[in-house]
Amino acid sequence: MENSLKRKAEDASHPTPKKQKSLPKHGRRLFIEAKMAWSDQYGRKKNTKGIFMVDSGCTGPMLNQDFVGGNHIPWVRRDDPITIHTADGEPMNNAGEKYVEDIIMRIQDHKEE
Question: Whole-prediction pTM value?
Fold first, then answer.
């Protein structure tokens, strides 16, 4: 009997893990490797490469503000900000206030300006 009480006390110190609920189901996302090129505020040519997600439902190109800031890509504040909505219709925070000019994205032999 003493052994069974000891075993129960040991089991209590290690709780049984909960069964994992099913994770949300997402479709596969299309990522591409591309090079970005721009001129800084002094006219010097700059570039970087990165992995970018293609969003076929997006109505225009968007860059993450951390990517823009981390790479020192010059941006312009809009006189009249636009509202950008997420897929569920909610306004997106910190979006539509700024934009970048004259940036080129190269994907292998293809170029977008």
Answer: 0.65
